[in-house]
Write the structure tokens for this entry.
Amino acid sequence: MAHPPRIAIYGIGQYGMMIARLAADRGWPIVAAFNRAGPKVGHDLGRVIGLGRDLGVVIQDSESGDYAGLDADIGVVTHRDLLSANMPAYRRLMGAGLNVACHGVQSYLPQSNDPELAAEIEALAQCNGVTFTGCGIWDMSRIWAGILTAGPCTEIRSIHIASLTDPEGQCNSIEQIRQYCISLPVETFHERGIARNAAALAKKTIPEMVLRALGYTVLESTATIEPVVYDVPVKTKFVPEGWFEPGLVMGVRFRCETTTAEGVTGTGLIDQRMFLPGDVEHMFWEVDGTPRNRTRVERLDSAHATAGNLFNRIPDIIAARPGIVPVYEMGPLKTTAVRWPRIGR
């Protein structure tokens, strides 16, 4: 692109605000901001995201906002994890001629998570000549780390990812970590049907995306979910006492498996749980093949990694072909730090 990307932000929550701050710091124009009805609507975006100054962008109600005159290259959706919950945003933004970057977990591979809505997204993107891409923290650490680990192999028998994610690193309230019943009784986990949670089951697409990128024909991807419980207290920033008692749900564990027509399998053991002393957030990829390879990626700033992955993908999405384009088709992620230097500094 000859000019910095022009951005519209849909969802001014934790990650929407982080993207807005990155864009403002970099000098990328923010042309519009939308949020659900509430106290943020009607206020200048710069004040809401903590810049201490106006950006000249008033946050609009997402239901009644003006989408017709958006002079933007891309809409960044940081609203929900489910495609069904985000469809109004996709329809509004792509209908206005904007490319879409979404950090919802189902958006990385829509056709595997919700084929019917994926077909609608593809049709919207093609009709309007724009690109739809799911992106964020999985991009480099889960998807591209696996692709690159398999790169030197001349023969592959299986791939496997084992990972550990810190819920406190990606959430800013106890309500957020309780989406998987963290800090609640195990009975509540089962009563709420977390084992059938569609957003959580999207983890199945992690080994699937890597196998698709390597050229294999995917037959089936599955995932199961189980609670993680500790018999020791766990430190936390979210309650006044500073710790959660033993015996409560402290996280979730996903077991994933993907099969292919070629006989190569992909598996995953993915933990998203409160940390114990010595834990480090990481993704560990192992490829059983010739040669055998292993790669470990450590994520030290989880929330910033989510925002940074999404932000740095924006130029690739704008440049991509129309339709649903997964990040594994775009090449390894590149920093934007040396592109479009900060304006006015």
